[in-house]
Structure formats: C-alpha cells, structure tokens
C-alpha cells in the first residue's frame, strides 16, 4: 500500500504553458534561416513594424521580403537604434 501512496504524491504531467514563472533553459530562439516557414512572404505585421523601424533609421528596404529576411532586418534595426543612441551619448 505504501507504493500506491507514493504514486499519488507524483504530480501529473503538466501541459506546456507560455508565460511560465521560470523560463525553460532548453528553449532557445531559432535562427530565422532555420525556420520552416522562413521562405514564406513576410507577414503584414512584420512589414508594418519594419516600415516604422526603417523610417526611424532613415533607411529604405525592399518590401519583397521573406519572413526570415524581415526578422533579420527587424533585429538589426532594433539593435542598430540602441547602438546609435549609445555612440551619440559618448560623443556628447
């Protein structure tokens, strides 16, 4: 009977959830070039956000992008904006 009590103490398998208190250390971001859908056309949301970032950076980007290309431009422009602000502060 003791063995039955132990099986009751073992929690049931938990479903995977988003927004957990502690991130799963084995979960890593995939490189956009490895995405299964990376060759599909960029989404409307990606294009809209990329348009905003490009305008703020004073750049023009071809609108005929894949999801992976759009993601790479977004990452670059997000990081580039931060680096530009830091370099401006260092000179001032």
Molecular structure report:
The protein contains three helices and no strands. The chain has helices at 2-9, 44-57, 67-91. Helix 2 runs parallel beside helix 3. The chain has 92 residues and is an all-alpha fold.
Provide the fold topology:
Blueprint: H1 2-9, H2 44-57, H3 67-91
Helix pairs in contact: 2-3
Produce a short descriptive summary.
With 92 residues, this protein is mainly alpha-helical. It contains three helices and no strands.
**Structural shape:** elongated
Q: Report the count of strand segments.
A: 0
Distance between the termini: 75 Å
Mean pLDDT: 73
The helix count comes to: 3
Q: SSE order in H/E notation?
A: HHH
Largest sheet, in brief, is: none
Rg result: 22 Å
Amount of beta strand:
under 5%
Low-confidence stretches: 81-92
- Counting helices, strands and paired strands, the structural category is mainly alpha
Give me some keywords for this one.
92 residues, mainly alpha, 51% helix, disordered C terminus
